[in-house]
Amino acid sequence: MSLDTFGDALATHQFDSSRIGSILKGNGSASETSIQRALTAQRFSKARIGDILSAHGLVERTDIAEAVARQHGLPFVDLSIEPADPTLIETADIAIYLDSKIMPWRKTGQGTVYLCSDPDKAATAMAQLRRKDRSRILALTEAQSLRSALVTATAGPLAKRAGMRRPKPFSLRRGVVTWQKTVIVMALITFFAGLVLSPASSIVALIYIAASIIGLNGLLWLSSCLYGRFDNHGLARTCDAPLISDHRPPPSISILIALYREAEVAPLLNEALRALDYPPELLDVKLILETDDDETGPATLAQDPPPFVEILITPDGGPRTKPRALNFAMEFAKGDIIGVYDAEDRPAPNQIRQITAQFAASPPEVACIQARLGFYNASENFITRCFEIKYAAWFDVILPGLRQMNLPTPLGGTSFFIRRRALAAAGGWDSYNVTEDADLGVMLSRMGLITALSRSITAEEASSKPSAWIKQRSRWLKGYLATWITRMAHPAELWRNLGPSSFIGLNVILLSAVLGYLALPLMWLGALLTVSDTLSSALPKAIIEAFHNLGHVSALCILLLLIAAVLGLWRRRRLQYAPFAFLLPLYWPLGAIAAYLAVYELIVTPTTWRKTQHGVGRIATKMRKKSLATSRSGSD
Known about the structure:
Elements: H1 3-12, H2 20-26, H3 32-45, H4 49-55, H5 61-72, H6 94-100, E1 102-108, E2 111-116, H7 119-128, E3 136-140, H8 143-153, H9 155-164, H10 178-197, H11 199-227, E4 253-258, H12 266-274, E5 283-290, H13 296-302, E6 309-314, H14 322-330, E7 337-341, E8 346-347, H15 351-360, E9 366-375, H16 382-404, E10 416-419, H17 420-425, H18 436-446, E11 450-460, H19 466-487, H20 491-498, H21 500-531, H22 533-537, H23 541-571, H24 578-581, H25 584-604, H26 618-635
Parallel strand pairs: 2-3, 4-5, 4-7, 5-6, 9-11
Antiparallel strand pairs: 1-2, 7-10, 8-11, 9-10
Helix pairs in contact: 4-5, 9-14, 10-11, 11-16, 11-21, 11-23, 12-26, 16-23, 18-19, 19-21, 19-25, 20-21, 21-23, 21-25
């Protein structure tokens, strides 16, 4: 609609009291069969007819928007033909634009025209605008077109909001505080001075510190084996319940998937999304791309994604991390519950049904539910088998143990679902923390909220090459250290928020994994001394005794880890990998390399995102080819 005809359209538009279905059927946009199909779906989902018709691909989104405009007596604007005037954007009103999904379009003789996609929400927002307009006129446009125009017009402020969403006191962007710097410097001075003044005593002290760290890991595994049951106040047992009770409408779910140069996984991603068993009109999937990624978008569109999928392009800005992309997409997520998947994820088709049932049966303080993670390529090689064993121990033993002991629960990075209000209260994600999942889980615990666990499992692609594994694990470990730095900036306040047991547990959880890997060289040296008389005879007796004690602690902890690993495999019915659990020590050198790399990067490049490339392994490649063949045969 041009400005020349806008005044005439405004004068002639009148409210149409007809139902949307009748308007669409009357103008030929929808058939009677489509309307009846939508009405049947509405009895269960309680969603709007237009949303149902659009999500099922029965009517074009633009046609539905035009019908809504006619129903409300508003002019309709097609932004693909008549784009908005960016000079009308008022910086002080950007928050209102984003929250209410309105924006100024053009100036006419009658006043400034504002576009919306939901007239009911727009009316209140129009009264809150700070921009000085002679008068304001409301028109309607299609929702995705409006979001795209908003991103284009407010790219700079949007990028800043995404990067700074988490308040500075709770973000890594604050950096290392004074007391932390002081402790680190004093510890280094003390250690090196000790090496000069009393080398043997300093080495003995270092060995016992390493033994204590490894012992704490063992204590965590032992406690989890004893307490780690899927019994989160009865929550996990609800996973096989119906979707939700008949008297309550099911919640809408937004799924955020951050991608960067992931063209290889596009067929598998599309297949996984189509397999989700949840009303399409209640699904809102955002695929979040970066501006310099020219591959993933076309590859995804080529697979003809479901109508409930929308592609968003993150505006340029810093830091360039996954949490910043998630913060950006959060501005446009429509769901009551927000979930996060990775590009290569293959969740159980009924996972969202199970999650919504679990939320419905949970008390309000349960803000988040984490699904279990596993690997569809676990059998590919030695690394992937060990990865599966570690995940079995973590998701089926350690996390249930933490939950039962009421300790902070780090999230797993993908396949978790969080109430929208809780996520907003937490300040979204910390864009400066490359392990944003662990940080968010700890933030929820600090707020007194609970992360529950689901029995549902999502299959991922495990890194199958040593270099990829090290990059991925170093990012995780760096994020754990970053989370510790952020949370422990004010330890007294954290102690009050969490209580003594959770405070101690949090420090053990965040530090023990990293420090345990850093201590591995000492454990290996101790093992070498037990078989080398030449080396042992050259060292003082106190050092040899310390190494022997370290060896005893290490042996006990390895036994506890094996128990946790086998127990986890038994719980997920994957005992065929149990023999490889005894080979885990051969896998640990990769973790040690990753830990030292994590420490180096935390100092030099704390926000560097080492992206894991997916869809390139042998099994993933075979699955991708099969998916492509299936989609081609289906379209023939």
